[in-house]
Automatic annotation (TrEMBL):
The keyword NADP applies. Transmembrane segments: none annotated. The keyword Isomerase does not apply. Belongs to the NmrA-type oxidoreductase family. Residues 7-164 form the NmrA-like domain. This is NmrA-like domain-containing protein. It comes from Streptomyces lunaelactis. Keywords: NADP. Pfam families: NmrA. SUPFAM superfamilies: NAD(P)-binding Rossmann-fold domains (SSF51735). InterPro entries: NAD(P)-bd_dom_sf, NmrA-like, NmrA-like_oxidored.
Length: 218
């Protein structure tokens, strides 16, 4: 048994996009993975179990279930749903859940917490969907648990989402209002403010795909 195999990483959001990818990567790298879900009988949980993960029932709003889930874990990968996404979650809800995971990890003596935040979390005044992650980051720093904070930018998977995608031949995104999405077409294209933009096509201005391609090449 390798050293990693004997070390358990609790993964929250394991049945979702980020947590699922993290769980699969950890398993592939030889770690023991404990996957948290509210639905241990669900398809995603079954797939994770088949891949070698231990499935544990838990709810990010239920601190006792998190305390039980972290028991004996070496590390925790923490990710929560946010205000953008198919099932949007409110600011307070996301912050509470992120703090709950960090607090449970600390109380459970976890050696290292990895928190999946978002790029620009620390400079996102006014963008509630990002401020929530900054609040969680600050809490993690304040409680003093050894931690790594990841700040991923926009994932490529967004382009397969009907709200953000390119299916119509148009590129739709939801970046901040002061971001020039692409300027090589000759007409600078300013995007809507994410603070006011739910991920629906009608809320997100669109621009020609060719312009995006041109910008990408420069
Ligand atoms: N898209 C991007 O470009 C991008 C970039 C940077 C950051 N992000 C951030 O990534 C984060 C995660 O997104 P995602 O797409 O991975 O999410 P997702 O696929 O919607 O996954 C949601 C996960 O959260 C779990 N969950 C939800 N409520 C729960 C609760 N009360 N208790 C326990 N588990 C709960 C679900 O598990 P069960 O249903 O199985 O319980 C599921 O595994 C978001 O905060 C988003 O802002 C996204």
């Amino acid at each position: 048994m390798s050293e990693r195999t004997s070390m358990t990483i609790l993964v929250t959001g394991a049945t979702g996009n980020q947590g699922g990818a993290a769980a699969r990567r950890l398993l592939a790298d030889g770690w023991s993975v404990r996957a948290l879900t509210r639905d241990p009988a669900g398809r995603a949980a079954h797939a994770l179990a088949a891949a070698g993960a231990e499935i544990v029932a838990g709810d990010l709003d239920d601190r006792a279930s998190l305390d039980a889930a972290v028991k004996g874990a070496y590390g925790v990968f923490s990710v929560q749903q946010g205000a953008l996404g198919i099932q949007p979650v409110g600011f307070e809800e996301e912050v509470r859940r992120g703090r709950n995971v960090a607090d449970a990890a600390l109380a459970g003596g976890v050696e290292h917490l990895v928190y999946a935040s978002v790029a620009g979390a620390e400079r996102s005044a006014g963008v509630r969907a990002f401020e929530s992650k900054w609040e969680i980051e600050k809490h993690i720093l304040a409680i003093g648990i050894p931690a790594t904070i990841l700040r991923p930018a926009s994932f490529m998977e967004n382009f397969s989402d009907p709200a953000f995608g390119v299916q119509t031949g148009q590129l739709a995104t939801a970046f901040a209002s002061n971001v020039v999405e692409h300027s090589t077409s000759g007409t600078p294209h300013w995007t809507d403010s994410m603070a006011h933009c739910s991920p629906r096509p009608e809320c997100c201005r669109t621009g020609p795909w060719s312009s995006f391609e041109a910008r990408r090449r420069t």
